[in-house]
Specification:
Low-confidence stretches: 455-459
Largest sheet: 8 strands, parallel, barrel
């Protein structure tokens, strides 16, 4: 039986996010990323067009050097300048009613107490439509921006994230009991002190007394996204994530990753369906197959493949700026994004990937080209592989999304691959899982009521 897919728009508050160089195109209005009206307009269009969320990527540092330095990034606009997406959430929240609002942030950039406070505030403002993409940051420059001499080793970053989310869960789920906020004018009691608790967390990296300063928001804990597919990343996702963003090279590889992660979730006391999977895909839509291929050819002539290499290789911590495109890439072991190289190998079966493959990995291997009908055929294959949603990658803003909404969405609705209507306003978690709060199977649930007595969890 065909099930509706969820759709999110994968964007970044910068001029050049994934399909690099398109800010130079006359249709590339992402050049105006500093203008809040661009994002408000896009959010309204996505909401009206049936998208479930807008998903903001983010970085907190430069990518690794290209051709021996970082001038290239500034010159071409490779995710610099880029603005803080969390600040933008408030503007989008008050201009929409249905659209989920997802942003990316790493433990590195903010202590958990203040982060919890900001996210809870956003969840109140949006009436429960906030999602957080939990990342560990893989950029050396990012760590140097926050006082470190070098990048913290890959698996150690996930141990750090474990404690970070543990503090957040205590604040979001355990610090305030249900019914604590009374706001009783007659008695003068605003909140019941016996139902508000300090968490007294003491760990390897954090010491947080509490209590949480924000009363429970509609979701308490935001919808939890995660994007790492290394062994440590999958293990973290299996324990914590509600939605995982993947960039598998084909449906069968997606099926394997999804099944493996769901098995890990079950081993951690959760249900496999507690996690949804969003495949990152871009689209070239034509009235005919020939028209679509023509548009793809035109797009490839506009894309800056040097930027694509700088982005992908820089994220892995290697400089391939002076290496020939046909140079084979053997196994790359870095403290950066290990999963990127694994996807690269899977997208080039039977041979060793080369530098050119890096440039084409995001631009071609996760691209669907065709008429709305053939695109729907392909999305059905991804759905049958276990994918729950599509993170739609743009070439231009708003053009890529307007084209998808106007031409592809009607076909998807007819086939049952997209929701027929928005429905009543609801929390993002309710839209995705049918409930406002985290499942009882989630590790955060153990903190509900845990601080009400001295016998509660106090560490």
């Amino acid at each position: 039986m065909t099930k509706p897919l969820s759709f999110s728009a994968f964007v970044m508050n910068t001029a050049s996010h994934i399909t690099h160089g398109m800010w130079r195109d006359e249709e590339g209005h992402q050049l105006n990323f500093n203008d809040v009206d661009l994002w408000v307009s896009l959010a309204k269009r996505l909401e009206e067009g049936g998208f479930d969320a807008i998903f903001f990527a983010d970085v907190i540092g430069l990518y690794g050097d290209h051709r021996g330095g970082w001038d290239f990034h500034v010159e071409t606009g490779l995710q610099i300048p880029s603005n803080d997406p969390i600040v933008l959430m408030s503007a989008l929240a008050v201009n929409t009613k249905h659209l989920g609002l997802a942003f990316t942030a790493a433990p590195l950039q903010e202590p958990p107490f203040n982060f919890a406070r900001r996210v809870s505030t956003l969840d109140h403002i949006s009436k429960g439509r906030i999602a957080w993409n939990m990342v560990t940051s893989s950029l050396e420059n990012a760590f140097r921006n926050f006082g470190y001499d070098e990048l913290v080793p890959h698996d150690e970053r996930y141990k750090w994230a474990d404690e970070y989310v543990d503090v957040l869960y205590k604040l979001w789920e355990g610090s305030w009991d249900e019914g604590a906020l009374l706001q009783d004018r007659e008695s003068g009691i605003h909140a019941a002190p016996a139902k508000v608790h300090k968490i007294n967390h003491v760990g390897e990296r954090y010491k947080v007394e509490g209590p949480h300063l924000v009363s429970p928001s509609p979701q308490r804990t935001p919808v939890l996204f995660q994007a790492g597919s290394s062994p440590a990343g999958r293990d973290f996702a299996a324990r914590n994530a509600e939605a995982v963003f993947i960039v598998a090279p084909d449906p069968e590889n997606a099926r394997k990753l999804i099944n493996d992660t769901r098995c890990l979730a079950i081993q951690n006391g959760r249900d496999g369906n507690d996690i949804h999977f969003y495949q990152g895909l871009s689209f070239v839509v034509g009235e005919t197959e020939e028209d679509a291929r023509r548009k793809e050819f035109e797009l490839d002539n506009k894309v800056d493949f040097d930027m694509m290499i700088a982005h992908m290789a820089g994220g892995m911590g290697v400089d391939l700026g002076n290496v020939g495109l046909d140079t084979p890439l053997e196994n790359i072991e870095t403290e950066g994004i290990r999963s990127t190289f694994e996807w690269l190998k899977q997208s080039t079966p039977g041979r060793t990937p080369n530098v050119k493959d890096i440039a084409q990995m995001r631009s071609r291997t996760t691209r669907i080209v065709g008429t709305p009908e053939t695109i729907a055929d392909q999305l059905e294959l991804w759905s049958n592989a276990g994918v729950d949603g599509i993170n739609v990658i743009n070439a231009t803003i708003p053009g890529s999304y307007e084209e998808f909404i106007d031409q592809v969405m009607p076909v998807l609705r007819r086939r049952g691959l997209a929701r027929a209507e928005k429905g009543e306003p609801a929390t993002l978690r309710h839209k995705l899982f049918g409930e406002n709060r985290l499942s009882e199977r989630h590790p955060a649930a153990r903190y509900r009521g845990a601080f009400a007595s001295k016998e509660g969890i106090q560490q």
